[in-house]
Structure prediction request, 489 residues.
Amino acid sequence: MRTKTIYTFLTMGMLAMIAMAGCAGSSNSSGSRPSAPAGLTATPADSQVTLQWSASKGATSYNVYDATTTGGPYNKISSTITTNDVVTGLANGQQYYFVVTAVNSAGESGYSNEASATPQPAITKPNAPANLTAVAGNMQVALTWSASVGATGYHVYITSTSTFTQETAAGPISTATGLANGIAYYFTVTAFNSVGESGPSNLASATPTLVINTFTVGTNPGGIAIDASGNVWVSNYGGDTVSELTYASSYAASNTYAVGSEPWGIAIDKAGNIWVTNYSGDTVSELTYASSYAASNTYAVGSEPYDIAIDEEGNVWVPNFSGDTVSELTYASSYAASNTYAVGSGPYSIAIDKSGNIWVGNFDGETVSELTYASDYTFANTYPVNSYLNSYSYGTAIDASGNVWVANTYYANTVSELTSASDYASSITYPVGTEPSGIAIDKAGNVWVTNDGGTTVNEIVNTALGPQYFPCSYFTDTTCPQFQGGGNY
Prediction:
């Protein structure tokens, strides 16, 4: 058999095409699509996101996709021959999700890892605070201003001369304390953040002032208490009566109720009942709220009871002036049983703090005794209250910050504030009327003092919080704090 030989003839054009194919095969010898890009990152800026990724071998370009939900569906938004891209025209605050693919003549790779970013406005220095106001109080000034967008804090600048002192505040309210009454102070505020500090706000000025109001009551007012509605109750030692200065009348009008002989101490329990010590009778009278104070109950205590206070459990506490003791009439026994605790010489006034400690003003020693709740009232601390000779300590009260207030009765005619911040080692003194005796503090921080040498009551106004009491009712608001005789809680 003869063999057939077949000859194939190639033209020059066909040889050129083969040569070109061989050259192309040298860059991707397999002729396959590139692998998916790796290491995709997304960095947000104002209305844009910068993307970066690692190069894919064999890729001639890249496609960029985005979505507003993780996992897609993705939309192609651009192509690039580099390994980075800046996506612009995005909405600030919107989170975006990105993937990238690699492309060559064989096709497109799968998606890269997903990267997300949320564009944010560029951070700049905040604007200067606006509407700075300054309200004077006693030895302090309360400042408020409108918040600056983007501020992380504020600098408060204060001066009474030409040189400002800088303070720092977290928010658009601050109180400058430790100021001198009667001196004008000037304030300005700046806002700051990580970029820098704004310009100053408007200038505001205020002059700290001690404001004392005076109201007329009965003869020889002694004890004082304030009920949940803001009414001020005063025992009139010289008239055997109790006066009620009504909050609704701005204390211009008063009601009068009869009690025992020489009433002095006065307190109000959570049910609204009025409790009064009768100095000459060694008794305590209870004017009942349910009877509109027309009916009263009487309970025996120690010798010469002066002040009175009621604790959170309803127990009634009375200092016995002649016995150097304090009596506790227990609520659980309907006030038929009592406990007795020793204190200083001539105990006269009494108050109870938030921790249940009993504070007693000792008339003869110019001291205050503290019967500690933790020791079941068996241990007492003693603190001096003033340096006036024969000024004596009558009324005692405790404010919401834990400061102890004491009326200095004879010769001094002042009120002392023992500051809790100094552990009661230092005090501030305020002038009031003649022979100040009873003392109480309302919810606005105003200090009320009876002047036994006359027929008046002084109100030392806490002007930083405003001169008016903000009433709430025990009978409708169970969260209303208890402010009663002697400034108890």
Q: What stands out?
A: Confidence is low (pLDDT under 50) at residues 1-29, 464-489.
